[in-house]
């Protein structure tokens, strides 16, 4: 079993996603931590439960509105739909992580261990990949508007095919975590769910963290930053050097919404990936403060799954109107 305490890496437990370190020795760390901070034993499940309830309700509402309202079937909303599905899937399994947290052991068997760890990692990769695709789409729309060109291939059907391709890509990326996920017993004979790496364990542990950092953050975020820089450059050029009309109000609103959703995602996930770098490059003692910060970083990454629906509701007029219309129709 990969032992993340080797070499002094940050081996703080993160229920489910194992950020920015693996879940090994989870129970021992949790028991020691809760002896020193007993209130945290209650506070963390409450935070996770709120995230679960709000995220499940909000994302289910987004899925329902986009699928039922004819006017909501747009290219951007197809990507938002898949983003909501990914968030909903994660919030559905969050109660299992809460149960493990309260019980201090894994009672659900090996198959569910593999499924839960895989879904946790789906959450890491799918959110940023769909946001990357949304950013590419926004860039192409802005570019076409600046050049006064149409986009005949930008259709709802094409968006569905691209979304399916993203799910296939994420499945491929997550498959190693499914293979390595396993149920094991520690020195105290307590059952845990974690990543069971082959020897040399320390090498595989570091490789898995670098793998997640590069594919789940560095590449997509770099792509997004380049796209938005080019987008701003084109908009500035359009304003200064062209008589082309400015983007219409609707396109501006969609672009702003995508940008804000992206900014919130980066705000929630950047500490997660920065903590990975810290875990790989420094030796941190397992003090209550370090463990508490680690749990806060995890909770922040989890919170992203329940924030997106509120962003759509506040920023997208068509979503608000469709949602209100469906609420009015339900009593009838």
From TrEMBL:
The keyword Transport does not apply. It is found in: Cell membrane. Pfam families: 7tm_1. Its main location: membrane. InterPro entries: GPCR_Rhodpsn (IPR000276), GPCR_Rhodpsn_7TM (IPR017452), Neuropept_B/W_rcpt (IPR009150). One of its GO terms (cellular component) is plasma membrane. Keywords: Cell membrane, Disulfide bond, G-protein coupled receptor, Glycoprotein, Membrane, Receptor, Transducer, Transmembrane, Transmembrane helix. GO terms for molecular function: neuropeptide binding; neuropeptide receptor activity. SUPFAM superfamilies: Family A G protein-coupled receptor-like (SSF81321). SMART domains: 7TM_GPCR_Srsx (SM01381). It is a multi-pass membrane protein. This is G-protein coupled receptors family 1 profile domain-containing protein.
């Amino acid at each position: 079993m990969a032992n993340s305490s080797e070499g002094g890496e940050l081996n703080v437990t993160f229920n489910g996603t194992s950020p920015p370190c693996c879940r090994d020795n989870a129970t021992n760390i949790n028991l020691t931590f809760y002896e020193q901070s007993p209130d945290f034993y209650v506070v963390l499940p409450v935070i996770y439960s709120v995230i679960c309830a709000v995220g499940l309700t909000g994302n289910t509402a987004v899925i329902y509105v986009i699928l039922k309202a004819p006017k909501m079937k747009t290219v951007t909303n197809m990507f938002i739909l898949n983003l909501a599905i990914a968030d909903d899937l994660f919030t559905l399994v969050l109660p299992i992580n809460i149960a493990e947290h309260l019980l201090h052991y894994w009672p659900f068997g090996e198959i569910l261990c593999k499924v839960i760890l895989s879904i946790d990692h789906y959450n890491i990769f799918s959110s940023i990949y769909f946001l990357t695709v949304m950013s590419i789409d926004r860039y192409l729309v802005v570019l076409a508007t600046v050049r006064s060109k149409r986009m005949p291939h930008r259709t709802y059907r094409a968006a569905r095919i691209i979304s399916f391709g993203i799910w296939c890509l994420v499945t491929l990326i997550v498959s190693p975590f499914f293979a390595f996920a396993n149920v094991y017993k520690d020195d105290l004979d307590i059952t845990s769910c974690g990543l069971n790496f082959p020897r040399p364990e320390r090498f595989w542990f570091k490789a898995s963290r670098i793998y997640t950092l590069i594919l789940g953050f560095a590449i997509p975020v770099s792509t997004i930053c380049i796209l938005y820089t080019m987008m701003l450059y084109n908009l500035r050029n359009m304003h200064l050097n062209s008589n082309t009309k400015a983007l219409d109000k609707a396109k501006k609103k969609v672009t702003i919404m995508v940008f804000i959703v992206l900014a919130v995602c980066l705000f929630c996930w950047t500490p997660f990936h920065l903590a990975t770098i810290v875990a790989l490059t420094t030796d941190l003692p397992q003090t209550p403060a370090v463990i508490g910060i680690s749990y806060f970083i995890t909770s922040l990454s989890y919170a992203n799954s329940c924030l997106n629906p509120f962003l759509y509701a506040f920023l997208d007029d068509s979503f608000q109107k469709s949602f209100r219309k469906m609420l009015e129709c339900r009593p009838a």
